[in-house]
Fold this sequence. Notes:
This protein folds into three domains: 73 residues; 86 residues, General secretion pathway protein M, EpsM (Gyrase A, domain 2, 2-Layer Sandwich); 86 residues, Immunoglobulin-like. Helices cover 47% and strands 23% of the residues. It is flat, with a radius of gyration of 37 Å. It is built from six helices and twelve strands.
Amino acid sequence: MDFRIFFQLREKRFWWLDVIFYFAVSLFIATLLCYFIFLIKNVVQKEEIKYQDAALQTVGTEEQREQEKEVINYQKKISDFTKLLEGHEFASNAFAFMENETMPEIWFKQFSLDGRAKEIRLIGESDDMESFSRQVGSLEKNEYVKSVGNLTSTLGQSARVQFSFSLTLDPKIFNYIPPPPSEEAEQPEKVESQPLESQKMITVFDLLLNPETVGIIDQTNHAIKLDVPYGTDLTNLQTFIVVSPGAAVEPASGVAQDFSKPVLYKVTAKDGSIQNYTVAASILPQGGAEGAEGKPGAVKIWLVIILILIVIAAISGIVFLAFRKLKKKKENAN
């Protein structure tokens, strides 16, 4: 192997090696500067968050803030219960379905559910093969069963048929309602559904401002009070409204309204009954809001911009000096 090339590289310096070296140095310096810039930016954002949190504490009344905390707490509870209900919806419907479809001569001793695949794995025994065949045939014809698979059966020591099979259920199993035992059992359900059809309440009324304004709802007098920050234009404010299940509100949620004077909202229940709500907005006195120049992050954002310009200037200067040095070397060599 010829090692002379390594001695040539040591004795003779190439211009492109200098370019790579200075570029690497410039890149290293730029990386350090960018790191410190992002570090400063992170500090600025944290202070901005603290500022916004402090500003939120000054918006609205103490009663509004307590109601907002209560609403957020209820939203978390609703979210948690929703996850639980979604996880148990398939199981509860599947158990009710199997309870009504299992024949008297069939016993299931293992019941495995797969909610994602909508599949049930069953292991059990029957008095004889004829009973087992009738059970499988009945399930195959059922509208809630898409397919029956992995079917195996053996004759056990007690002369009973040991079996296992899986059911792939149709997604409409979520709408499965067990047949009522008698007509009398249906009547309480009709009585319970009547109050829901006649419900016509506004449960949440917010203004989509920054920060969001939560309305104080008086369900006795059917009135809603809104305290908006100082300087807000009341003539075009977007709303967020939640009403009773099945009810409709007019004007609808999300439609901007002029709140410079009281606005009448009409809530219509499922049964057609109507309840009116009077919504009035008032502007809070000056003190909670500050101008842009009062923000602690406003000045520091300019500092970040200046640092970025310094980085660009430093990289440009280093590259310029590198090429200038290379040019002098070439001139001296010539």
